[in-house]
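Why do we bother with holo predictions? Because pocket geometry can differ from the apo form. Keep that in mind while you read this record for pyridoxal-5'-phosphate.
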Amino acid sequence: MLSQPVLMNDFVRQWHETGEAASQAMIRVGASGWYVLGKEVRGFEAALAAYQGRRHAIGCANGLDAIEIGLRALGLEPGERVLTTPMSAFATTLAIVRAGGVPVFIDVDPSGLVDLDLAARYLAEDPRTRFFVPVHLYGHALDLDALGALTRRFELKVVEDCAQAIGARSRGRPVGSVGRLSGLSFYPTKNLGALGDAGAVLTDDDALAQACHALRDYGQGRKYEHERIGLNSRLDELHAAILASAQLPRLAAWTARRREIAQQYHARITSERVRPLPAPEGSESVWHLFPVRVAPEQRDAFVDHMKARGIQTAVHYPKLIPDQRALSGTPFVSVGTLREAHALARSELSLPIHPYLQDDEITRVVEAANEFAP
Ligand SMILES: *Cc1c(COP(=O)(O)O)cnc(C)c1O
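The structure, written out:
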């Protein structure tokens, strides 16, 4: 019997549900005669700010720009050190480098997220470092009590990378509530995905919000008054309209389904060879990914085993950021050997967890994982 493949993301099923609302949004924008930074963008920004519990959301072109804009709004000076994690999408570091910062890579803990104790130890020895871009990886929330304490103790300027963690909380507290700013991505695979690229910066600070508004639009404060070296990172009306009327209203239900699937995997995957990564203490995760650890020498065999059963998997991420060739001519600091991050890069694998996964597909994933016997 031929069964459909189990995909990491199923945009066709998503369109089946969202297509009508998205098409109406397109007609509305087309007929309005206004296509960039207008009332659709303002409406989406207001809804998004409310969803994340922040005063301001500033729509922009993508998640990479959101982090860069955040760092520039905070006044990052060229050559200043910025703590971050070696285990993330490359975009996190790219934003730091493009903003003129020097990334300082701190190892991760067993959850795969940046180790806040190691960050504290580093900061105690290098008090010059004032910036931090922590990443709420995999949809898990970093321990925000610990992040808040670190921020206060070392007077850090923090831009939280929430690209994978919209809606995640740490002991009831939303991600993005510790940093002066946070960045979101609406790349299609993210928990809130556009039909293309989009992103947003969020903040509670009126002055920072104003700076972000200028930075996304050539650095203009008022029209033709350029106060800063800005970007063109404007958000289209079309993407904002689709996000606001077809996607955001479904995010809570999508997140609930992701949580249900994660719960099923935790309860039913019993193989000793396939171990879910632990979430950080206190994390109310939104399960952007479902990362597991397998023995490094068995990972390729596990990928093939799943593939033979029609199940896609992916590795997040196989190569650490400081090991990427793009950084070879760029100043950066690796703190210690990044042992845990290297070990994870060799052993991590993500199972499908998108909200359109059906019950029989969850069972297929569980059974395939449990049957793995290399
Ligand atoms: C996707 C992602 C980004 C970048 O977002 P884009 O919209 O692709 O630019 C940044 N950080 C993390 C952790 C991401 O997953």
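The longest strand covers residues 56-60.
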